[in-house]
Each structure stands twice: as structure tokens, then as C-alpha cells.
Amino acid sequence: MMKTVPAKTIVTNAKNDFWFGTKYNMNIYRGCCHGCIYCDSRSDCYHVENFDEVRAKEDALRIIRDDLRRKKVRGVVGTGAMSDPYNPFEEKEQLTRHALELINAYGFGVEIATKSDLIVRDIDVLKEIKEHSPVLVNITITTMDDELCKIIEPNVCVSSKRFEALKKLSDAGINTGILLMPNLPWLTDSDENILELVKKAYECGVKYIYSGFGVTLRMNQRDYFYNKLDQYFPGLKEKYQKKYRDNYSCAIPMVKTKCKMFTEACNKYGIIYDMKRIVRDYQQPYKKSQLSIFDELR
Questions:
Q1: Distance between CA atoms of 227 and 207, rounded to whole angstroms?
Q2: pLDDT at 46 exceeding the cut of 60
Q3: Which of 7, 50, 199, 241 would be 57's cystine partner, CB 3.0–4.6 Å?
Q4: H/E element, 112
Q5: 3-state DSSP assignment of residue 234
Q6: Is 231 buried (19+), middle (13-18) or exposed (0-12) by CB count in 10 A?
């Protein structure tokens, strides 16, 4: 049986609705077993013990139901910020799927961030939500190289499988985006990787790409990341230490040039990359009364 942790509430008010226009956050699981070497959620500030062990929130579906019933204002519920809602346990537990069914029943929208192709299982529910509220699925893809992907994101499907999932979602009429983040200096920041990713996104019907053009490093997360660099990329840790020291935000080298190249490629293929434009585009078809943030973004 899957381990659980107690919870009083799960659908909470978003602290910053800038992030894809979400009004609420929902984390059904605690911890993540994808093993990504760069994950910011390992940082001490989040107080997640045994981060690599996935645990479900106890009595999650009842709590989510009650949380949604109490909300006086409907809006977009974001999930995937702290732990992937489509971890390997979800295939059996189906907590995310049932939560989506509740979101649908209570008339809310949803924004999902994941690295897993398991999400295609729930296309039917996403299409039902899209009938009345905004839906956006963001899949993180950092590299076009499946072999590199296996190293930096070892316990989740490779990038090519994620592109296949994006194509299936797009073909089903679901708004899709790519989180090109982090962009790891000297690992995933090459011109070739960025340009090929944008082109492939276009071929798969992706409407949006949002990139951070760097990586964040702090506290024990930095130690974990550096240990993995020593293990798989000897000598690279020293380059990080020399350039970034103890900085939290670590922009890729030649960041302005890379950003310009990225935006030009997106413009070429008609892909949206500005956050406010992304939010406007996928929320525009719905009535203003459904979304408390809509007026601010017009």
C-alpha cells in the first residue's frame, strides 16, 4: 500500500497568478521519484523530507472535493509545481485522474505540469473540462538527446516519448506547452538543442514554450546536483563553481544571444513564448466571469 501523509487542505490559493494564470494550486502527492538531478524542490526551504519517496495526501479526494465546493470564485487549478502529478504510482492510484473529474464537476479549469506521458490516459477528462473552462498541459523537455535525458532525468520517460504525448494531446484539441526549463549551462544550452526543440515542438502542434534560460541552485539541492555532475560529467562542477559561486540564479552563458535566437525561432514557427500572451491565448475563449485574473491581463 502506498504511504500517505496527513493534509488539511490541498487546493490552495496561488501566491502568484503570473504562473500560467493559475488561481489555485493543487499538490496531491508529496515527493517525487523521477530523480532529476537539478530539481529545485529538493531545496531545504520546502521542508520535504525523503524527497525521492512519493507519498499521497491522506484522504486526498475528499479534501479536494471539499476545497472546490468552498471556493466562491472559479479559476484555473495548477498542479505539478512541487511534485509530478503523473508519478509511476498514479497509474494504479488514479488520484490525479479522479481529481480532474472533480475539477470538471465543479466547473474549474486546469493547468498541468508534468514530465510523464501517462497524462495521455486522461485526455478524455481534459476534453470535458475544456468544454467549459481553460485547459493547458505543460510538459517539461530539456534536451533532444534521449541518452542525455536518461542521465539528467533518469526515472521518467525520455524526451521523444514526451513529444509523442504532446502530439496526442494537441491532436485531441488540448492546448499544449513545453517547459524548456531548466536550461543547464554546458549541458542543454547549445544552439542545436534549442533550435531543434523549437522545430520539433512545432511539428507536434505545441502552441507555447516557456524557457528560463538557466538553472537555480540553492542549499542541499546544489550539493545533490554537483555530486551528480561529478558522477556523470567530471570537471563540469568546477566550471559551475567558478562562474556561479553561491548564486541562486545561474543564467546560461551568452544568455541574451541565446534568448534572441530562441524568440526568433519561436516567431518563425508561430509559437508563443511570453507568459502574458500564453495566458491570454488559452483563457481568451472563456467568459471573464470565470477567471478573476482575466481583466488584469487584457
A1: 36
A2: yes
A3: 7
A4: strand 109-114
A5: coil
A6: exposed
